[in-house]
Amino acid sequence: MRFTEDDRARVADAIASAERGTSGEIFCVVSRGVSSYADVSLAWAAAAALLAPTALIPLGFTLSWPVGDGWEAAHVTAQAVGVGQALAFYALVQAVIFVAVFLLTRIPPVLRWITPRSLRQARVRKAALQQFLAHGVHVTRERTGVLIFAALKEHQVELIADELIHQKVDEGVWADAVAALTRELKAGRPVAGFEAAIDQCGRVLAAHFPPRADNPNELPDHLVLL
């Protein structure tokens, strides 16, 4: 999903328009992806490699150890060779399965399917909070900043409002803004989604935080791409 200069200009205009009616500040960030989720792929690959030998048992793959009677004792060397070969084959099968599953789970649709939704949400939330702090959305004069964050790979949208907004505005109010952006992202219209979400946020902020006599623009009116 690409954002042209015209796209970014449209988002900047939408932010400027929304902020004219409020003392609040709106900041927008788009991330291509907040995590590689390599740990998820490694976990699935390791689990598959460990459990794979159980699937070989019905095929007759077993290990035979010396029992200790006279006949077995006469063939300890031969059995040691057989056990060594079986262990080598066991390790080879595990290695092949590990690599195959790891590579399979690196395919984006597969990775998204096997990654728990709660994990994706937690990492998107963490990344959004990091951007909230990194761009100073939390240091506006009256603590009235709002971050709109979209993670494209995760198909997740996060909206974070600052302290004073939390005191006056119920969190459920932001659901319409999140839904509007999510809907347009699914339809492949990210700019229209941001425009709708920004407009909704502007209306909420205007209702609770009207513009001051001196109403400086405390945060840049542009879309940040990560």
Please provide a written account of the structure.
This protein has 226 residues and is α/β, with parallel strands linked by helices. It has two domains: 5-35 and 116-225, Diaminopimelate Epimerase, Chain A, domain 1 (Roll), CATH 3.10.310; 38-113. Helices cover 57% and strands 10% of the residues. The chain has nine helices and four strands, in the order H-E-H-H-H-H-H-E-E-H-H-H-E. The protein has helices spanning 5-19, 38-56, 70-73, 76-104, 108-114, 117-134, 163-168, 175-186, 190-208; strands at residues 25-31, 145-151, 156-161, 223-225. The protein has a four-stranded mixed beta sheet, with helices on both faces. A hairpin with a 4-residue loop joins strand 2 and strand 3 (156-161). Helix 2 (38-56) packs antiparallel against helix 4 (76-104) and helix 8 (175-186) packs antiparallel against helix 9 (190-208). The radius of gyration is 28 Å and the shape is elongated. The chain crosses the membrane at residues 42-67, 87-107. Pfam families: TPM_phosphatase. It comes from Brevundimonas mediterranea.
Uncertain stretches of 5 or more adjacent residues? 64-68
Helix/strand-derived class?
Answer: alpha/beta
Instruction: Trace the largest sheet across and list its strands.
Output: 3-2-1-4
Separate helix tally: 9
Mean pLDDT: 83
Integer-rounded radius of gyration: 28 Å
Domain TPM: 115-203
Keywords: Membrane, Transmembrane, Transmembrane helix
Organism: Brevundimonas mediterranea
InterPro entries: TPM_dom
